Amino acid sequence: MSFASVFNKLHGQPSSYDKKALYKMGKTLGAGTYGIVREADGPTGKCAVKIILKKNVKGNEQMVYDELLLLQKLNHPHIVAFRDWFESRDKYYIVTQLATGGELFDRICDYGKFTEKDAARIIHEVLDAVSYLHANNIVHRDLKPENLLYLTKDANSSLVLADFGIAKMLDSGDSMLNTMAGSFGYAAPEVMLKKGHGKPVDLWSLGVITYTLLCGYSPFRSESLPDLIDECSSGRVVFHERYWKEVSKDAKNFIGELLQPNPDDRPTAEDALNHRWLKGETATEHDILPDFQRFMAKARLRRGIEMVKLANRIEALKMQEEETESSDLSADIGKAAIEGVTSAGKAPTDKSTNASRRLSRAARSAIFREVVLAKVKEMKQEEEKKAAEKTLTELSEKEH
């Protein structure tokens, strides 16, 4: 046993903690409810390390073990690969393949042209991964553009599905889950209504992604949970003539089949893979990039505001073992937030990065005001969500 191992053991560290010395942590890639994701140099090269604070999952440790077990079972070209894991006294570390090519929607905005055929090819790759998961009785439950990443910046890079933090393994092919899951705007109606759900929730999310991919905006735009539930449950998907007139009927048909309020009416992932639109034969060569970029520019501004809030969240995590690194992370994310706001709607350049460092007091004040407004809006949505949940609970009690 090495001196380092003895030292770690004396300080109450688990035996697997010795592996931490093999990884040199780098910049922060993102943050969530339970911890952060950092880039790192490891024994096999660059990788991503998800760091989860144990105090944030106290009583729900099985969630972490489930994710570990699930990741180790996966082997698919369009799913991020598992590398290793270890733990400290107060953190779990999950090491996966590093995707450096950027998020799907950001990558599209940097293209010179993006057609419906390109969209069909992308959705086919994602659906292939989903079909693989479902064949292994796994439901991802959090399909959204932010979880679709390119491995490298190469033009022919593979697209991979990431973040299996709330994915679940089913006991059988038709078993159901009952916990809330998914992201606002992408979660299926049965999830928001707290009904039992299973594999069809991934098909719904993919329908929302496909719609957004072809126009740049979401099919469901309500900002409160009760209104969103009503909108999603109506079964009415609108294809606005101005933005959809050049898109093929097969694409609209594919989306319509996925966005069925009743999960039993949605196709299986395997059946959806055989849809005519995904073969690319009827998809048009119409360039949808201009409209997509226009809508994404607004989304990037919102993301800049979210990244300012993200910096505060990272600071709040108080990573005890890496306090100096934690403060560096907040600084990095804060700078990235400013860069994201100043470069909204266009690819970042050295010039825009330098300009962001000299951001005026007025601009900083504007960002601060937006953050405050966003926080107020967030609190209001949380109140509405609680009210909706209370109403659903009362309705459920009346039914029983």
From TrEMBL:
It is an enzyme of class 2 (transferase). GO terms for molecular function: ATP binding; calcium/calmodulin-dependent protein kinase activity; calmodulin binding. Residues 379-400 are annotated as: Disordered. The keyword Nucleotide-binding applies. It comes from the Eukaryota. Residues 23-278 form the Protein kinase domain. The keyword Nucleotide-binding applies. It comes from Pyronema omphalodes (strain CBS 100304) (Pyronema confluens). InterPro entries: Kinase-like_dom_sf (IPR011009), Prot_kinase_dom (IPR000719), Protein_kinase_ATP_BS (IPR017441), Ser/Thr_kinase_AS (IPR008271). PROSITE patterns: PROTEIN_KINASE_ATP, PROTEIN_KINASE_DOM, PROTEIN_KINASE_ST. It catalyses: L-threonyl-[protein] + ATP = O-phospho-L-threonyl-[protein] + ADP + H(+); L-seryl-[protein] + ATP = O-phospho-L-seryl-[protein] + ADP + H(+). This is calcium/calmodulin-dependent protein kinase. Pfam families: Pkinase (PF00069). ATP binds at residue 54.
